[in-house]
Specification:
There is one protein chain. By secondary structure, the protein is of the alpha+beta class. The chain is 39% helix and 27% strand. The protein contains three helices and three strands. Strands 1-2-3 form a three-stranded antiparallel beta sheet, with helices on one face. A hairpin with a 5-residue loop joins strand 1 and strand 2. It is globular.
Length: 84
């Protein structure tokens, strides 16, 4: 699981928009990720595989935001706010 989260963080940061994510419309970033993962090395795609991932992000105002993703073959098939 740690490898999966690490791989996802690397892929999201490779989108070159990770520093300016707009959490109001994460579907745009999901589409960008799915396009990029197609060209990722097979080793990386096999590490990500089929997973359920949940993020808890601490915001500047002291609150937390939860985001979850369901992955199939390293592609995001479902994601949304809240827990799994």
């Amino acid at each position: 699981m740690n490898c999966t989260v690490f791989a996802l963080l690397i892929l999201f940061s490779s989108l070159s928009v990770a520093y300016a994510l707009n959490f109001d419309n994460m579907n745009i970033y999901t589409d960008m990720y799915n396009e990029k993962i197609r060209n990722a090395p097979e080793v990386l795609r096999s590490m990500v595989g089929d997973e359920n991932v949940e993020f808890t992000i601490k915001l500047n105002n002291g609150s937390n935001m939860q985001w979850w993703m369901e992955l199939e073959n390293a592609k995001i098939v479902r994601s949304n706010y809240g827990g799994l």
